[in-house]
């Protein structure tokens, strides 16, 4: 698994598919696999947000505006790089607390399954909206892993 990020969003517009179409990324936390002695990282079977594992988390406050014209993600600042936390402090568990009435984007850094938008409503119920799945059949194992992790939050 490549690093995954969870972005907290300030949403300006919701599209016809009940997903954010214009928003600002205000915070990002990145989960990275721990490497041993310079060896290639071992793929993770799961990531638990509230338990330590063979991974670490970093966090950073950011301000990145994003729009989705015609379903294509465009950063308003025109820099189309992958967003990873550059925070210097490492955490054993995810430092993010999911807040009520807030949108998040979980980015799997994967060309097959980009990620999911997550909305936590005022009753603290979590709703997931898939951004894009390019695989013809089924959902990637990453999506299943993250769904289990979110359910255990």
Protein model, in words:
With 153 residues, the protein is mainly β. It has one domain (4-151). The chain has one helix and seven strands, in the order βββββββα. Strands 4-3-2-1-5-6-7 form a seven-stranded antiparallel beta sheet, covered by helices on one side.
Shape: globular
Strand-residue fraction? 35-45%
Q: Provide the succession of SSEs.
A: EEEEEEEH
How many alpha or pi helices? 1
**Low-pLDDT runs:** 74-82, 133-139
Structure class: mainly beta
User: N-to-C terminal Cα separation, in Å?
Assistant: 20 Å
Largest β sheet strand count, sense and barrel closure: 7 strands, antiparallel
Work out the number of β strands: 7
Average pLDDT, all residues: 77
Helix amount: under 10%
Strand order in space, largest sheet: 4-3-2-1-5-6-7
In short:
This protein is mainly beta and 153 residues long. The protein has one helix spanning 141-151, and strands spanning 4-14, 20-33, 55-67, 74-75, 102-107, 113-120, 126-133. The chain starts with a strand and ends with a helix.
Tags for this model:
153 residues, seven-stranded antiparallel beta sheet, 41% strand, 1 helix, mainly beta
List strands and helices in order, with pairings.
Elements: E1 4-14, E2 20-33, E3 55-67, E4 74-75, E5 102-107, E6 113-120, E7 126-133, H1 141-151
Antiparallel strand pairs: 1-2, 1-5, 2-3, 3-4, 5-6, 6-7
